[in-house]
Amino acid sequence: MFALLTDETLTAKFPINERKAIREHVPWTRVAKAGKSSYHDEVIEDLPEYIKQNREKLVLRPNDEYSDMHSFIGYEHDEGSWARAIRESLRAPYVVQERVKPARTVFPLMNYGHLEFKEMQVDVQPQAFLGKVAGCSSYVSTSGPGSYSPASGFTPTFIIDSKV
Hints:
four-stranded antiparallel beta sheet
């Protein structure tokens, strides 16, 4: 879906406010496959080569979140392991995305009877029902995804709306 939303040739007729919201909130995404593509206003002649040359700002993710395939964050890999990740992404349904800095904020934690304030990463997962967002859940962790900490877990999510 993100690959469709970030393809300017497909969204050119969207209202300007929707295109602005997409640019500000949806990371550039393409299906990882051989061939031409585009990156904003730039034409990419060879997408796998572009992925190889720009590993510092890209991630490779399985297209299906519920698979046993791994995500690859470019800056965490050297050139050799990144090349292997690219080869893997071309054999299975993967997407390439711009790396987005994770949201972090300070949360109060009760730790052995003492109140602490700790900066934690926040991942919000919207939930849709019949095409409409019906709620969301938030997962907080002291470090990145896949890391375990006793402080990690789901937390209540509140949407504060100015409507009266």
